[in-house]
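I have been asked to look over a protein record a colleague put together. Alongside the sequence sits a line of tokens, each denoting a local backbone shape. Please read both lines and tell me whether the tokens look consistent with the sequence. I do not need a full report, just your reasoning and any doubts. I have pasted the whole thing underneath without changing anything.
>
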Amino acid sequence: MNIFERICINVVKTFTLLGCLLFVVPLACAQGYPNRPIRLIVPAPAGGGTDILARLISDGLTKSLGQPIIIENRGGASGMVGADAVLKAPADGYTFFMVYSTLLTVNPSLFKNLSYDSVKSFTPVANFVNVPNILIVNPTFKVDTLADIIKLAKESPGKLNYASSAHGTINHLFAELLKLDAGINIIHVPYNGGAPAMTAVMGGQVDMMVQNFVEALPHIKSGRVKPIAIASLQRSTVLPEVPTLDENGFKGYESALWYGIVAAAGTPSEAIKTVNEAMKRLQESPAMRERLVAMGLESVYMTPNELAEHIKREIEKWAGVVRAAGIKPD
């Protein structure tokens, strides 16, 4: 083979390679979103309730979207550490934020120098579940109904007390809302977390507590605490014998710690739409519904616009409770 033939063969190879590349690149672009792994920032340590729900979402979205959903636990500062991590990342559709309702709807009323704006800093993507609150008491506390508690509280103002997992949490604020509307004075005893607060109720150090359904359920089943009323418009299928607050005369009352996903403002609409639709498929799957019901959770799907409006309403609601109860922001 002479040098001219070698040159011709090399030229043919070069153009063949270029042709292949020109063909492959459009195919890669045509794959659309997502075409690489997605980060899900979780504003809580591994192993807790928020993390468990995040991993349910991660597994489901990985299968639905065909890309790994990588969880990053960024707990601390009432969710602000996680929020800052999301807002410092590129708003390109490859970083999402697993949020719980307090972070977006209560924090604005409790912190003077919040590092984010719940409405302007984030784009809502989808809701996931509601965790209803439930009013529980120590089994030795001689009450069976909410009416019994209100009667005792009015007979002895300031004598009864209730625990919460911390100052400014949903269970604290909802208990204050009940106090305001019932016209009673019950002393707040904040603890450093749900577990020590629950222990105090079981041990009789405090009389009662508003707690999320998932954390209260094992202790209700064991008989270590007694349920009085659930803050949901329908009775729970897991504890159908427990009446709702609505049935107790507090019409329309519902309180739940809800979980969902948001992204940084400016995230492409294609990414928001794609992940929202994947979340809807996940929530509609019989296997997921069965798993959530067994955990005492309510699956709730919202479009991005519906979730945005829900967040605004909740911000106004809890701001009103904070003002009326005289709770001072930090």
About this structure: Confidence is low (pLDDT under 50) at residues 1-30. The two ends are 84 Å apart (CA to CA).
